[in-house]
Each structure stands twice: as C-alpha cells, then as structure tokens.
C-alpha cells in the first residue's frame, strides 16, 4: 500500500484520504431525518465508511446531506450553507423529496434541491432504505477517488482556464 | 344541550344568523359579517356560554359552489359526493371564514361561518377577543387573502414577502412556483 501511494499522483493520494474521511453536514428538514439517524446508528453504521462524524457547522464539513423536503423559502438558506462549506465538497440528495420534490408538486416545495445547488448523488425512496444510503456513500467514495465530484470537476476546470486560457 | 346555544344565538341575534345546522354533534351557525363581533363577544363573555377556548380559524374556498345553500337537498350528485352538498351559505359568496370555539366549562363546541364575496373579502378580526387567533388569522390572510379588520399585525406567516397571490385559493395553479433562488445550470 505504501509503495502504491508513493508512486501514484499526489491528487490521488489526497482523494484516497478524502473518500475515507467524509465529514457530513446533515441538512435535515423532514421525516427522512429518522432514516438518516438509522443509517448513522450502530446497526447500519455509517462509521464503517469513515463518514461517522456529523459536523453541525458547514465550515467543518465536506459532505452536505440534504435530508428531506426543500421548500422554496428554504432555498436561500440551503444555498448559504452550501456556499459556507470549504472546497472540495460533495452533496447527496437523500430521499425523493430532496432529489425531485417527490409528491409535493405544489406552490411551496422546490422540485429538487439541485434547483439551487449541484448534487453529486441522488438517493430515491420515500424514505430510502439504509442500504441504499450506504450504496450511495460507496458510489460517492468512488467518485471522490476518481475526482469526479462536482466541486473537483469545477476546480479542475478553473485550473485549466487559469493555466491554459 | 348544544342546541341550546344555537337557539340562544337565534333568539338574541335574529337577522345576524343566516342559518344553523347540527349534524353528528357539530353545531354550525352561519352568521353575517356585521354580527360576528357581537356574537363572538357574547359567546365568550356570557357565563351560560363561556366559550373561552379558541380552537381554530380558517377559510374555505367554495369556488364553483357559490350558489349552493348549506345542506341543500337538491345539489348535483358530483358536488354532493364531494362536498356533502354544502356551499358557503350565502348566494354569491365564494369564501367562508370559519371560527371554531370550545367551552370548557359547559363541554360544548360551536362553529361560526361567515360567508364572504370575493370582491369584498373583509371580516372583523377576533384576535382582540382571543389573542390565539392572531397567527391563525394571519394564516388565513396568507393562504386566502382575507383581510381581517382590526388585526394588529396582518402579514404573511408562511409564505415569503415576495410571494404573489394566495396559494390555497382553488384558482391558484397548483404547478405555479415562485422561486426565491435558482442556480445557473452548468455541466458540473
């Protein structure tokens, strides 16, 4: 393992570290929060993936979990929380409401949190099974390693523009 | 027992009471706007009434049912199955503001309905008599656009200031959204 890291690119090493230490910020607005607690609790044990530590300050976290319905009125708050997070950062839309608005097709519910901020992984379900969430975490970890998270891609693009443009 | 309340109201306020009904223990008095404040004050202050507890205040939009009388027997079947044949209680009145009161002393409930026309959506506020109605009347204002006369702080309570219209009206398009913030879509 040591040799592999030494011979791979520095960015890959950093990403390897990032994917095993995702600090989540649970933006819990609705009933999916119960399922999030279930995932974090010992039975399903999110800690196995290094994402055990919910930080309740966006400045100390790099994974924004949008857990529950986002209303239009909450949009500016969500955007502000996202903007406060340090780069690189990732976003998971937890549950069908955060992904698409779910069955709330009305004046108050936002049709998906991605109307306001970019989302890396969407978890369907009302609420999703804990296994689905773990699946999503693993999917995200893969993306982090490959440098395909939205903020990683944005960073790369900005770097290219700076050096190449 | 509950019928006594309706009888007392009819006897005391006469023309202020448009109709009353009593089904399955639900006593409803349809009252005029002008008499509402006096009726409410009587219900609260008279020891034989003592309706001290305000349960809720809300509004009903009877769009398409304006002409129907409450509990009329001759309504179209489709309407009847949907609404049990109830209109707002006064011809041409699209909205009804509803107050539900409870008397803890006498163990009674009563519902007051005030039919209102769309172009004259004003009703006296009861938040002076029961302060708990303050926020509930703000909700009715927010969702239906009812102006409560004499309300100390008539602002929106759920929707944001920028919101235009009143979303729980039946003619508010259910898919219409008024976003506060949207992001620019890139290929992130």
Fold blueprint:
The complex is a heterodimer of chains A (165) and B (188).
Chain A (H helix, E strand, L loop, with lengths): L1 H6 L2 H10 L4 E5 L3 H9 L22 E5 L7 H10 L5 E5 L1 H5 L20 E3 L6 H17 L3 H15 L1
Parallel strand pairs in A: 1-2, 2-3, 3-4
Helix pairs in contact in A: 2-6, 3-6
Chain B lengths: L1 H12 L3 E7 L2 E6 L1 H13 L7 E9 L15 H7 L11 E9 L4 E9 L5 E3 L8 H12 L2 E3 L39
Parallel strand pairs in B: 2-5, 6-7
Antiparallel strand pairs in B: 1-2, 3-4, 4-5
What report would you give on this structure?
With 165 residues, chain A is α/β, with parallel strands linked by helices. Chain A has one domain (22-164): 3-Layer(aba) Sandwich (Rossmann fold), CATH 3.40.50. Chain A contains 7 helices and 4 strands. Chain A has a 4-stranded parallel β-sheet with strand order 1-2-3-4. In chain A, α3 (32-40) crosses α6 (130-146). Chain B is of the alpha/beta class and 188 residues long. Chain B has a domain at 2-119: 2-Layer Sandwich (Beta Polymerase, domain 2), CATH 3.30.460. Helices cover 23% and strands 24% of the residues of chain B. In chain B, β6, α4 (133-144) and β7 form a beta-alpha-beta unit. Chain A binds chain B through residues 72-73, 75-76, 79, 105-108, 110-111, 114-118, 150, 153-154, and chain B through 158-160, 167, 172, 174-183, 186, 188.
Provide a concise account of the structure shown.
The complex is a heterodimer of chains A (165) and B (188). Chain A has helices at residues 2-7, 10-19, 32-40, 75-84, 96-100, 130-146, 150-164, and strands at residues 24-28, 63-67, 90-94, 121-123. Chain A has 165 residues and is α/β, with parallel strands linked by helices.
Number of strands of chain A: 4
Per CATH, the class of chain A reads: Alpha Beta
Q: How are the strands ordered across the major sheet of chain B?
A: 1-2-5-4-3
Indicate how many domains the architecture of chain A comprises: 1
Helix and strand pattern of chain A: HHEHEHEHEHH
Biggest chain pair interface:
A-B, 19 and 17 residues
What strand line-up does the widest sheet of chain A have?
1-2-3-4
Shape of chain A: globular
Please state the overall shape of chain B, judged from the principal axes of the Cα atoms. elongated
Task: Assign the CATH architecture of chain A.
Answer: 3-Layer(aba) Sandwich
Radius of gyration of chain A: 16 Å
Query: Can you summarize the main beta sheet of chain A?
Result: 4 strands, parallel
CATH class of the domain at 2-119 in chain B: Alpha Beta
Specify the oligomeric state: heterodimer
Residues in helix, % of chain A? 40-55%
Distance between the termini of chain B: 69 Å
Helix count from the secondary structure assignment of chain A: 7
Secondary-structure element order of chain B, N to C:
HEEHEHEEEHE
Q: Might you state the CATH topology name of the domain at 2-119 in chain B?
A: Beta Polymerase, domain 2
User: Structural class, from secondary structure content of chain A?
Assistant: alpha/beta
């Amino acid at each position: 393992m040591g040799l592999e890291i030494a011979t791979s690119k520095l960015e890959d090493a950093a990403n390897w570290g990032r994917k095993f230490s995702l600090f989540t910020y649970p933006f819990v607005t609705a009933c999916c929060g119960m399922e999030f607690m279930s995932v974090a609790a010992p039975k399903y044990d999110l800690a196995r993936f290094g994402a055990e530590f919910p930080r309740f300050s966006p400045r100390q976290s790099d994974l924004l979990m949008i857990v529950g319905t986002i209303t239009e009125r909450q949009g500016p708050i969500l955007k502000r929380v996202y903007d406060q997070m340090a780069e690189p950062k990732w976003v998971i839309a937890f549950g069908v409401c955060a992904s698409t608005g779910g069955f709330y097709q009305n004046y108050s519910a936002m049709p998906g949190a991605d109307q306001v901020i970019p989302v890396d992984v969407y978890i369907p379900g009302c609420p999703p099974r804990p296994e689905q969430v773990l699946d999503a975490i693993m999917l995200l970890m893969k993306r982090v390693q490959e440098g395909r998270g939205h903020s990683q891609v944005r960073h790369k693009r900005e770097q290219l523009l700076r050096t190449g443009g | 027992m509950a019928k006594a309340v309706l009888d007392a109201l009819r006897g005391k306020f006469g023309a202020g009471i448009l109709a009353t009904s009593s089904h399955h223990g639900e006593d409803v008095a349809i009252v005029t706007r002008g008499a509402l404040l006096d009726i409410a004050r009587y219900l609260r202050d008279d020891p034989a009434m003592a309706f001290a507890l305000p349960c809720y205040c809300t509004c009903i939009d009877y769009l398409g049912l304006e002409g129907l009388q409450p509990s009329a027997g001759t309504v179209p079947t489709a309407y009847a199955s949907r609404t049990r044949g109830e209109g707002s209680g006064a011809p041409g009145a699209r909205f009804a503001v509803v107050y539900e009161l409870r008397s803890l002393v006498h163990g009674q409930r009563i519902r007051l309905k005030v039919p209102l026309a769309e172009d004259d959506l004003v009703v006296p506020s009861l938040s002076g008599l029961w302060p708990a109605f303050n926020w509930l009347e703000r909700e009715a204002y927010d969702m239906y656009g009812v102006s409560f006369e004499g309300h100390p702080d008539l602002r929106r309570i759920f929707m944001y200031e920028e919101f235009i219209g009143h979303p729980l009206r039946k003619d508010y398009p259910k898919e219409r959204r008024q976003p506060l913030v949207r992001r620019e879509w890139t290929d992130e």
